[in-house]
Inverse folding.
């Protein structure tokens, strides 16, 4: 029963695919099925839409999301009406997706459902809070393409990553790109003093002065630093960026003659919009990147088959990835972990 | 006139609406859609209800837990007017709609209990117990809904079979994996449904009434289970549709009561918020004038008062009374004339929308409408200059008064943007045109308007260098000459002010 016990140690989990068709729904179905035999109350939703039987882009067959008795799920009204299971409606929230209000229900007889839940990180946090009264032990978010915000530790405490041939059909490239993402997820936490200092700062770019007090570096965000003439690193060895960290900003900092030992802090890995080249260059020149909040990456799942039909060797892929990322890697479909206990 | 149509009036009524602690979005919607009351009787009734809520839930400290419960329950109030309309129009409700209806009925019952506990009934909530029993056949009184097994024995049977088959659908891995009882039933024996209804045992094909294959191979067994599941699912869907149709018919008669309940609960939310606002902002319950006079003691503008308080400054309340007459208000710059006009407009709106009034005490006359001409009304998009916009607005006041509308008109410094000679003539002429007409007019001006039969009030003005905002009766020609002194107090350029004083002395 791979990684299910690890999941049960957390109250929230997001499943994030690095690309469409990387086996995210297979992975979710695997987790849901295994959890159905555990004594824990589970609620599941999706950021964006998921669970459709045919991929809307590639027209390839997709596994539908299967829920079993006792599970809770939240989806848009329109998809609730077309569900293929028996469920008891327990809540209608004021949250709205493009497909209508989000409703929450408890499964009475298992079956399939299309999930289309809250569409932003903040609405996901509200969704989680709304489940408190049902005594849910584990909330699972099925992350959609390009919506990595669901994996933010502000939303979910643990995550499972899915990758595969759809992300890159070249084994070396796939391994390298996945390893880089895992490295970003695993960026270490900043010192607790700095974490407490910056955790409530939601705007701007900040440093610390010699006395350790917060210092406004006068930069609105890493996107608007063109007009800044002073070297921020000269003013502060610790730089906190409340929003996104971009390649240009990172390169600008890496160019500083005083970059060695400097520490750039972001809220969490979902705020990193940096290429591997810029990231490595920054580290090579002596800079460090830290985060205020960190998710626990529990496992990586792979789908060796690309929508184009190209298939990578599953065993080789799993082995190579495990060697590189030092984490368990699973091909859920091939190994049919779902066999009975 | 609806509140939402005057919400952006410069008098500041938006602040009052925004500071109401409404519990539900529907309450806010209904507040904005509330109509301005135009009869004394209606206003008296509204304040009677507000006072009952205020005394029970705000003044009576022992009811604080009940008030918190009431607020928490009102938070779950949803706008289901669309569902009620569909029910009224013979629509067949779906599960989401039944859920909404059931939640509203259960909420009404809970709130009725809270109101009884506080011995406070603003309106009689309809008895929806009959409806609850239909939508809650298991009697759990939990706000949840599905098409319960209790509605149909056949449905119960089908669902029991579906459970044995592992659900409506199953993942590829689990089918035939032994995780669940995926074996086919011995035979297709099914309970008979009531006469005239299609039974699942009467379905077509080998799967319905015939035996499952003997000693089926795994593949055949899986195919059998899948086909069987599909057939049962389809039949369950058919029965659920029948139940929804029947249930919609059963609860249709409650549609007017549901609408009434929704209205009452929204009203309750609004009343509770208004009652709390009275306490929070120090508002008063007004009396209704029966002689055409409006009297305010200690009137204040809540938003300005709050802004001043945040800056550590104090607001000076003013007393004011006026009847069916024209009143001019003169006084120094920065003497609070405009604020006084805005506050009178605000109070009139609040009175006719049933809010607490920002004053120590108030006795207010009911008006047909309030017209407030204040500030720079320049409408560049509409192609009007500030003067043109002002003339248009005042022209409308004259027209409406001539049409017999009993309005409260509040005009701030008319014709101030033109030359003083023509400006004075325009103001004097306006007062003359409106003389003897049935309206209450408050007009501020710096012009010395001679003659005329109208009342004059004056801001007390600078006393020992401190502004006294109170209003007092004034005589003809009592126009304050304080502009230069105030400019000096503001720290304006000494040479400029000195020259102005010199010129004034030469004129005198």
């Amino acid at each position: 029963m791979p990684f299910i016990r690890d999941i049960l140690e957390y109250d929230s989990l997001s499943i994030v695919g690095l690309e469409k068709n990387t086996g995210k729904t297979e992975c979710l179905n695997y987790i849901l099925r295994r959890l159905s035999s555990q004594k824990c109350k589970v609620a599941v939703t999706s950021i964006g839409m998921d669970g459709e039987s045919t991929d809307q882009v590639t027209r390839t067959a997709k596994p539908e999301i299967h829920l079993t008795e006792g599970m809770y799920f939240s989806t848009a009204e329109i998809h609730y009406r077309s569900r293929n299971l028996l469920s008891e409606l327990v809540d209608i929230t004021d949250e709205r997706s493009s497909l209508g209000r989000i409703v929450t229900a408890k499964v009475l007889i298992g079956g399939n459902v299309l999930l289309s839940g809250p569409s932003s990180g903040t609405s996901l946090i509200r969704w989680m809070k709304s489940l408190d009264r049902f005594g849910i032990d584990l909330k699972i978010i099925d992350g959609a393409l390009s919506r990595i915000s669901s994996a933010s530790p502000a939303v979910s405490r643990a995550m499972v990553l899915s990758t595969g041939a759809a992300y890159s059909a070249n084994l070396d490239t796939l391994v390298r790109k996945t390893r880089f993402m895992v490295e970003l997820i695993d960026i270490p936490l900043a010192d607790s003093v700095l974490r407490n200092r910056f955790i409530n700062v939601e705007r701007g770019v900040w440093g610390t002065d010699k006395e350790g007090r917060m210092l406004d570096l006068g930069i609105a965000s890493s996107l608007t630093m063109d007009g800044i003439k002073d070297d921020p690193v000269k003013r502060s060895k610790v730089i906190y960026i409340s929003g996104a960290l971009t390649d240009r900003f990172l390169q600008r900092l890496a160019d500083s003659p005083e970059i060695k030992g400097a520490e750039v802090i972001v809220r969490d890995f979902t705020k990193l919009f940096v290429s591997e080249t810029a990231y490595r260059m920054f580290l090579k020149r002596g800079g460090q990147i830290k985060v205020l909040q960190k998710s626990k990456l529990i496992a990586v799942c792979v789908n060796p088959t690309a929508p184009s039909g190209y298939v990578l060797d599953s065993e080789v892929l799993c082995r190579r990835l495990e060697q590189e990322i030092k984490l368990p890697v699973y091909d859920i479909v091939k190994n049919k972990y779902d066999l009975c206990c | 006139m609806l509140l939402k149509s005057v919400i952006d009036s410069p008098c500041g009524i938006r602040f009052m609406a925004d500071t109401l602690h409404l519990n539900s979005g529907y309450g806010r919607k209904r507040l904005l859609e509330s109509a301005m009351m135009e009869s004394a009787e209606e206003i008296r009734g509204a304040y009677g209800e507000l006072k009952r809520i205020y005394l029970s839930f705000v003044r009576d400290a022992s009811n604080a837990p009940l008030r918190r419960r009431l607020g928490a329950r009102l938070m779950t109030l949803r706008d289901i007017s669309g569902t009620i309309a569909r029910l009224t129009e013979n629509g067949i409700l779906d599960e989401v709609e039944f859920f909404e209806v059931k939640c509203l009925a259960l909420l009404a019952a809970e709130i009725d209990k809270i109101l009884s506990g506080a011995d406070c009934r603003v309106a009689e909530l309809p008895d929806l117990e009959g409806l609850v029993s239909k939508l809650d056949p298991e009697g759990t009184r939990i706000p949840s809904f599905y098409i319960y097994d209790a509605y149909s024995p056949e449905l119960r049977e089908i669902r029991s079979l579906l459970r044995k088959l592992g659900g409506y659908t199953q993942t590829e891995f689990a089918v035939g994996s032994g995780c669940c009882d995926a074996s086919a039933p011995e035979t297709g024996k099914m309970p008979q449904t009531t006469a005239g209804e299609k039974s699942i045992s009467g379905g077509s094909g080998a799967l319905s009434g015939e035996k499952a294959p003997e000693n089926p191979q795994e593949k055949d067994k899986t195919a059998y289970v899948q086909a069987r599941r599909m057939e049962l699912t389809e039949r369950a869907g058919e029965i659920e549709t029948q139940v929804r149709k029947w249930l919609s018919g059963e609860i249709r008669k409650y549609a007017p009561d549901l609408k009434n309940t929704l209205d009452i609960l929204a009203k309750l939310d609004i009343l509770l918020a208004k009652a709390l606002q009275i306490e929070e902002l120090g508002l008063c319950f007004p009396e209704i004038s029966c002689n055409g006079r409006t009297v305010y003691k200690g009137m204040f503008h809540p938003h300005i008062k709050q802004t001043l308080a945040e800056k550590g400054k104090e607001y000076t309340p003013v007393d004011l009374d006026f009847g069916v007459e024209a009143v001019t208000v003169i006084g120094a710059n920065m003497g609070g004339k405009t604020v006084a006009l805005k506050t009178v407009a605000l109070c009139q709106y609040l009175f006719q929308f049933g809010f607490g009034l920002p004053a120590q005490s108030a006795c207010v006359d009911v008006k047909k409408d309030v017209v407030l001409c204040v500030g720079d009304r320049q409408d560049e998009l509409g192609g009007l200059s500030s003067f043109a916009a002002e003339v248009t607005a005042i022209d409308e006041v004259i027209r409406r008064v001539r049409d017999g509308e009993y309005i409260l008109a509040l005009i701030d410094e008319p014709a101030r943007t033109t030359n003083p000679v023509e400006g004075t003539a325009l103001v004097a002429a306006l007062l003359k045109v409106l003389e003897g007409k049935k309206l209450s007019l408050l007009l501020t001006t710096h012009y010395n308007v001679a003659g005329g039969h109208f009342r004059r009030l004056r801001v007390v003005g600078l006393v020992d260098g401190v502004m006294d905002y109170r209003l007092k009766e004034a005589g003809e020609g009592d126009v304050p000459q304080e502009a230069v002194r105030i400019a000096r107090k503001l720290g304006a350029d000494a040479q400029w002010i000195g020259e102005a004083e010199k010129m004034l002395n030469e004129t005198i």
